[in-house]
């Protein structure tokens, strides 16, 4: 194919056409926001070497619009599409507004889902007004980069798996109209599970319908044909791997099984998008969460920081056995040989141990970097405090004198470390919301509540975080709550305002500061022995959440984040490390 010239990509009666000639899309998902920008070129070259001719990406609204009317680096979308063109690939863009993607809140801003009265993913005018504003800023990055203008963009998705959520096709019509009005001339499409109710609720007349699945391609395409007798067959999400949850098992799919499923798709004559071709990492604490159970209404299952996805190109950008199986399949019948693999990015030259030099307790960090304190009768939610990723300290008094009674937190989302009169009293969760030991009055109770990831799929999408019910002493609500939030975005400006002191003698929550000296900067993984749960930054770049619950045991450090010599490390530990009697062990960098 030749990019850089104006061409026409169309949806035909039985397949896709490029300037009137049949073409099959062999695409792979790669999210620009999960890959360091300096490594986009390498990852795109890996997709080409696997035999793909196209790349697909979502666009997370919440990453780019942290507050109403305030946007940050929307230009990253355009820069990525320029890199796609430079790599010789086409592009499929999925701008939402909802994206799922195992991303915080499915890509919807928390300020939006927390806005009273607004009904997301509906024709609610308040919601659509926000979508118009957002797309008015986003589409200028996409429209000039469409294929008919010499760019790589050939298809744009309308919403995302809407049939798994709702059935308002007039809402989909509104979105399609907004895309067209914004200048999108590329082919529009929808994608849904291969079930009648999903295709009925999520597809739109006049717009290409596609299906998502991980196996049984013939059955899936038969279901699609019941709804669309004509048009191209395409699997927009071929789940060749899967994602992990904290405290769960590491998901692995046998390469031969995955290759067999891909072979079946190709034998059906269909186009395909590998989800994921390269998963990357949920840097910055942006990983979402799911709800367990058949109806996705059960216990919270937070997603880990790694989005390796058991993809053919792993989190570090390396080919796996699955890569080679797919490459063999995708190269069959080609007239020309596939390009070779690009040179691997630099890898850390030698292991290095960080030297932690300072510490500040959580209250001091909150005082330096937190938002304003509010005093209300009942606990405010994270959304009411303007907190997206991070934590909130709630403080409430138990009146006295009164004898010991159970203390329970109703509507806790998601996890609270509780202190009574300054002493750690336990950890509460949604499933275990009551302290083991009763509390007598008078007493001062602090709850440091952490958002473990907003739900990204299912009917609980958009649920609030924090203490959403109240704090009960016996059956009595405790009123008069002081609340103050610490959003992870506060660390973007640095930690110069934090009053660091000497390291604690024993393991303790708080913000640790230190340095790590690097010889031979390159891709690395960060190990955190003894750390319980928290977040890490290197040179101000947020690597994401760590948690001793596993299964993830280290964090990926992209080589461009490191520099030769001294590098700054911040570690926000949110709970006392298990068994650490002599302080928090130093983090260690290892070559990948």
Beta content comes to 25-35%
Number of domains: 3
Named CATH topology of the largest domain? TIM Barrel
Query: What integer value in Å does the Rg equal?
Result: 25 Å
At the first level of CATH, what is the class of the largest domain?
Alpha Beta
Number of strands: 31
Q: Report the CATH architecture of the largest domain.
A: Alpha-Beta Barrel
List low-confidence stretches.
none
Task: Indicate the overall shape.
Answer: globular
Instruction: Let me know the CATH homologous superfamily of the largest domain.
Output: Glycosidases
Average per-residue pLDDT, rounded, comes to 96
Lateral strand order in the biggest sheet: 4-5-6-7-8-9-10-11
Catalytic activity: Hydrolysis of terminal non-reducing beta-D-galactose residues in beta-D-galactosides
Protein name: Beta-galactosidase
Domain Beta-galactosidase 1-like first all-beta: 379-480
Keywords: Glycosidase, Hydrolase
Q: How would you describe the overall organization of this protein?
A:
Keywords: Glycosidase, Hydrolase. Residues 379-480 form the Beta-galactosidase 1-like first all-beta domain. Its EC number is 3.2.1.23. InterPro entries: B-gal_1-like (IPR026283), BetaGal1-like_ABD1 (IPR048912), BetaGal_gal-bd (IPR048913), Galactose-bd-like_sf (IPR008979), GH (IPR017853), Gly_Hdrlase_35_cat (IPR031330), Glyco_hydro_35_CS (IPR019801), Glycoside_Hdrlase_35 (IPR001944). It comes from Streptomyces rameus. There is one protein chain. This protein is α+β, with helices and mostly antiparallel strands and 592 residues long. It folds into 3 domains: 21-331, Glycosidases (TIM Barrel, Alpha-Beta Barrel); 352-357 and 495-591, Galactose-binding domain-like (Jelly Rolls); 378-479, Sandwich (Jelly Rolls), CATH 2.60.120. Helix content is 20%, strand content 30%. The chain is built from 12 helices and 31 strands. It has an 8-stranded parallel beta barrel, surrounded by 5 helices. Helix 5 packs parallel to helix 6 and helix 9 runs parallel beside helix 10. It is globular. The model has no long low-confidence stretch (mean pLDDT 96).
